[in-house]
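A reminder from the course coordinator: this example appears on the midterm review sheet, so study it carefully.

Given structure:
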């Protein structure tokens, strides 16, 4: 989607903008708190895309994401009365860690609401960063549950709520990422790619870029299963999505902010939607090729480059690696999603004859020399003659798929592929 496709908003609806001056003030306030993360030229990506690719390594931030910038800038902006009351936030991840760290650094009481389903490791990290300045409340099964509980508590106790993205101080803090990028770049930046969740990072980066380097094209990147910003911009109003794919958890929000949306309408040149499987492929490539541990949202910017190959040739490109809080227990799921996206892993329900030698025939006549069975189980027996079998097959090349299914048909094994049947796939796999 190009900027010309973004439905025009009534500019009277924009209550506030974030100025370059506000971002510069935030940058000065943050200089002794955040790590000035490196901007690194990546030779492998540069060769692959025939351009100069630089990675802004916010995964190396003190809390391993950019979220500290906005949280700290917001909290340090509070007056003495507000500080004395304490702050509250709701988050299952990076925002919670940013708020916790800020509370400890500023000596302010904080209460952080997190879903009961939050992994223990993330809860421990929040407590470690916040020390005795914060307390964690585990409530509800989803972020929405914990958000509702946090807002009720805020109202009852007259606490200050630290919004993860829809606030000018938060946006100004996130915009300091762009200050560091432009200070470090020796040449002009032609394209900058940023992940979009609620829109705070892109709104902040875009506000600074368009004020200092207006020729730089800003591309916001959303997971295809949670395209809340693109949907809202296309509709000309904040639009809440009924359902989303939560895999890219750091960028999977049902509703963006009205403030972030209004700013993004002004500063974005394009929005890219990246399939979750492509994000997984990029996570594995960043780790295997560069030893970079990126969380799903952190890999979005690099994952989008494939969709801009022709446009970015010969250009200077900056991709913000927005976070590196990736749970190692998710790596098997990430590999699986990547293989499926790349056409290398396929699941079938195959009708097998209930007789000796059927499996031997399947392996001898259906499987190719480099095909590998990774999953095999009977689901049930329907009668004496045949029964459905769930089979997972990994291929060396996506080109091996058509010969595989042809051999299955020719050998008398009726099948149904379930990769693209979300109901069956989620039920069986």
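Designed residues:
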């Amino acid at each position: 989607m190009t900027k010309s496709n973004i439905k025009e908003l009534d500019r009277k609806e924009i209550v506030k903008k974030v100025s370059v001056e506000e971002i510069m003030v935030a940058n000065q306030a943050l200089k002794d708190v955040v790590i000035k993360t490196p901007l690194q030229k990546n030779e492998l990506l540069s060769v692959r895309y025939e351009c100069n690719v630089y990675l802004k390594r916010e995964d190396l931030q003190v809390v391993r994401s950019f979220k500290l910038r906005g949280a700290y800038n917001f909290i340090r902006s509070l007056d003495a009365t507000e500080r004395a009351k304490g702050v509250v936030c709701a988050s299952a991840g990076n925002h919670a860690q940013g708020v916790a760290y800020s509370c400890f650094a500023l000596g302010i009481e904080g209460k952080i609401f997190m879903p009961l389903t939050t992994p223990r490791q993330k809860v421990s990290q929040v407590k470690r960063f916040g020390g005795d300045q914060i307390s964690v409340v585990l409530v509800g099964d989803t972020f929405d549950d914990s958000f509702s509980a946090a807002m009720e508590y805020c109202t009852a106790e007259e606490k200050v709520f630290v919004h993860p993205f829809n606030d000018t101080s938060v946006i100004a803090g996130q915009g300091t990422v762009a200050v560091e990028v432009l200070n470090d770049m020796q040449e002009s930046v032609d394209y900058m790619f940023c992940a979009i969740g609620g829109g705070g990072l892109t709104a902040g980066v875009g506000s600074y870029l368009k004020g200092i380097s207006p020729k730089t094209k800003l591309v916001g990147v959303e997971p295809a299963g949670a395209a809340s910003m693109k949907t809202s911009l296309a509709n000309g109003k904040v639009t809440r999505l009924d359902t989303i794919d939560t895999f890219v958890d750091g960028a999977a929000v049902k509703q963006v902010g009205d403030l972030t949306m209004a700013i993004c309408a002004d500063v974005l040149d394009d929005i890219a939607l990246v399939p979750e499987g492509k994000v997984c492929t990029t996570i594995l490539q960043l780790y295997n090729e560069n030893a970079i541990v990126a969380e799903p949202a952190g890999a979005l910017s690099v994952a989008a480059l494939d969709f801009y190959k022709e446009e970015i040739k010969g250009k200077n490109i900056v991709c913000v690696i927005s976070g590196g809080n990736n749970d190692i227990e998710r790596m098997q799921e990430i590999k699986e999603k990547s293989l499926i996206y790349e056409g290398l892993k396929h699941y079938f329900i195959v009708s097998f004859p209930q007789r000796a030698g059927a499996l031997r025939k399947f392996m001898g006549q259906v499987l190719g020399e480099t095909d590998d069975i990774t999953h095999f189980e009977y689901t049930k027996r329907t009668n004496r003659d045949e029964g459905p079998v769930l089979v997972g097959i990994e291929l060396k090349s996506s080109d091996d798929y058509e010969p595989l299914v042809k051999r299955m048909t020719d050998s008398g094994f009726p099948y149904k592929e379930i990769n693209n049947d979300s109901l069956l796939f989620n039920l069986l796999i």
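Residues 349 and 406 are 15 Å apart (CA to CA). The longest strand covers residues 345-353.
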